[in-house]
Inverse folding.
């Protein structure tokens, strides 16, 4: 059974820094698809500036063009904080026979010990940590110990359902695009054009979503 990729976030706004790594993970690992899961009540970031409806629309526009990507609204439909462990528990109910691969950037992975019930994540899914080729990894601390205990270099390990002891961690080099949603919002607020940083199909609505700064 092909694994399913999971990519959560505020997507405020959605940009190529989200999409290109997700596509590469999907293709390199042979995932069935990647589920894009927008947060309703983000835990590790401020409340989004763009409306929930607009963020969902951006994701849906991309999913219509990219068959490997599916929009999943389970965090939107619940009012509780968007804890990923709760989302993964829900996904295991929906896809009991599918291995799940939670896609994380290196920055998020290095802070994983601050996540709600973070130890349970590896009982529910494998972690695919995307990073720039040649990136340095921590050599001490909790994350380093986690890598030592759980790392795999075998893609086939991700095709096995996680056992009781938890899943595996795959460190995957991908094309890292230095694009920041915060920088895009600031750019638009200053009247600058974010062309080539995000899909052109959503560029105009992004420009309209973030108000110009008052002089």
């Amino acid at each position: 059974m092909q694994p399913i990729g999971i990519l959560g976030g505020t997507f405020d706004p959605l940009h190529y820094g989200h999409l290109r790594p997700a596509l590469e993970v999907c293709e390199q690992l042979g995932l069935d698809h990647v589920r894009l899961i927008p947060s309703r009540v983000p835990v590790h970031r401020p409340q989004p500036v763009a409306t929930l409806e607009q963020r969902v629309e951006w994701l849906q526009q991309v999913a219509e063009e990219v068959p490997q990507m599916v929009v999943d609204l389970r965090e939107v439909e619940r009012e509780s904080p968007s804890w990923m462990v709760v989302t993964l528990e829900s996904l295991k109910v929906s896809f009991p026979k599918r291995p799940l691969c939670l896609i994380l950037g290196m920055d998020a992975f290095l802070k994983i010990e601050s996540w709600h019930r973070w130890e349970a994540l590896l009982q529910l899914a494998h972690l695919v940590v995307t990073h720039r080729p040649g990136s340095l990894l921590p050599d001490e601390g909790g994350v380093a110990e986690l890598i030592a205990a759980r790392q795999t270099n075998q893609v086939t390990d991700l095709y096995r359902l996680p056992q009781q002891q938890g899943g595996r961690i795959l460190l995957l080099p991908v094309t890292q695009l230095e694009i920041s949603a915060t920088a895009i919002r600031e750019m638009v607020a200053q009247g600058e054009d974010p062309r080539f940083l995000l899909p052109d199909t959503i560029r105009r609505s992004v420009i309209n979503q973030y108000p110009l700064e008052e002089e």
